[in-house]
């Protein structure tokens, strides 16, 4: 059994999640449930691999080895049922920066790029900063709080000469694990209307019991898809700056590699490559146990809210470690609600940044003791809204 109960000593280490609590949020003692990384320690096998690499005392220029590519390929085949060629793998330094590269490589200024809101806010940022036209296709929220795609609406938008679509799968922040049918429908629509499908699957390993991730790479439109993956969320190694594009199409892959080489965009650093290879070689059981722990944290949170804040509508969590909470019954906007929760001792993300005011996002990837200490602060902040 792996240990997810012992807090990692993150405060004072430069950790964004912990060390800007005072300067940016005005409460240096508030517990952080915002940035999407974890507050327990990374797998010991990954730590050991990095330690062994450090003891070689050389940190020169490094490129991905054959062993690295095999580890990535075997993880994808074993966990996600996608039998890729090692040559399809294009290592990169992070999914957001790679999205920016891809938008600039495959579209021109003014071109339409589609995202499905509410969604991870850097998606809109990389589109707008590139001078492209943002198209927002809204997800539909049912009475049970579960989000779905309106495929007819999506088709209407794609018909309007959209050049590229960014799919978030599993979805951050609404927690959906899209079904095989949904992913195939999206891929087929993009292929039909000539929009390149770029599927951000950074959370693809973090899936709750009863659900199964279906990668866009298996949707049957390999000539028109780029799948972005990373070990960063799964194994809490985002700071090592290592991710992988999987691009089956030779022409798409060559174009992106050439575009990046012409701009001197580097591959991941040497320790990032080591960590990724170790995680994908030895991390299967750790990943499974983490998912079970996150599911237990979800249960703790649901029970607390049902008892103490029944007016908060909890979105079903199918994947990711991020809970999407509907606080609209309070009558307070999400930004103000987060300010009050921070003052009360818990830092959450406000839903407006993702495209839905009246919601907040809560990170469950933390030791249970931290969660149990933070939930009463969430309640206190919410109750402040009743007194205002």
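^ Assign residues to that structure.
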């Amino acid at each position: 059994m792996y240990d997810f109960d012992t807090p990692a000593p993150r405060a004072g280490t430069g950790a964004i999640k912990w060390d800007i609590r005072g300067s940016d949020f005005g409460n240096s003692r508030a517990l952080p449930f915002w940035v999407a990384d974890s507050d327990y320690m990374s797998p010991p096998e990954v730590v050991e691999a990095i330690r062994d690499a450090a003891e070689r005392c050389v940190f020169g220029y490094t490129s991905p080895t054959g062993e690295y590519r095999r580890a990535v390929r075997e993880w994808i085949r074993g966990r996600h049922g996608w039998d890729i060629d090692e040559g399809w793998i294009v290592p990169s330094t992070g999914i957001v920066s790679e999205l920016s590269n891809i938008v600039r490589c495959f579209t021109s200024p003014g071109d339409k790029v589609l995202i499905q809101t509410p969604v991870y806010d850097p998606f809109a940022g990389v589109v707008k900063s590139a001078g492209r036209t943002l198209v927002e296709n809204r997800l539909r929220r049912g009475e049970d709080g579960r989000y779905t795609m309106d495929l007819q609406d999506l088709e209407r938008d794609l018909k309007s000469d959209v050049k590229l679509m960014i799919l978030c799968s599993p979805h951050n922040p609404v927690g959906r694990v899209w079904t095989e049918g949904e992913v195939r429908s999206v891929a087929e629509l993009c292929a039909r209307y000539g929009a390149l499908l770029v599927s951000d699957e950074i959370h693809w390993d973090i899936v709750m019991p009863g659900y199964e991730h279906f990668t866009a790479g298996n949707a049957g439109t390999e000539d028109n898809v780029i799948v972005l993956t990373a070990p960063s969320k799964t194994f809490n190694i985002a700071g090592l700056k290592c991710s992988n594009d999987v691009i089956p199409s030779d022409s798409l892959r060559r174009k992106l590699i050439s575009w990046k080489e012409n701009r001197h965009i580097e591959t991941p650093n040497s320790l990032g490559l080591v960590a990724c290879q170790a995680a994908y070689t030895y991390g299967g059981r750790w990943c499974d146990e983490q998912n079970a722990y996150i599911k237990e944290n979800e249960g703790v949170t649901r029970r607390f809210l049902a008892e103490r804040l029944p007016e908060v509508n909890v979105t079903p969590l199918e994947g990711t470690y991020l809970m999407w909470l509907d606080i609209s019954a309070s009558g307070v906007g999400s930004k103000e609600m987060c300010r009050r929760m921070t003052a009360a001792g818990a830092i959450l993300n406000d839903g407006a940044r993702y495209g839905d005011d009246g919601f907040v996002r809560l990170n469950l990837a933390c030791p249970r003791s931290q969660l149990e200490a933070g939930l009463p602060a969430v309640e206190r902040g919410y109750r402040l809204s009743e007194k205002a």
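The chain has a mean pLDDT of 97.
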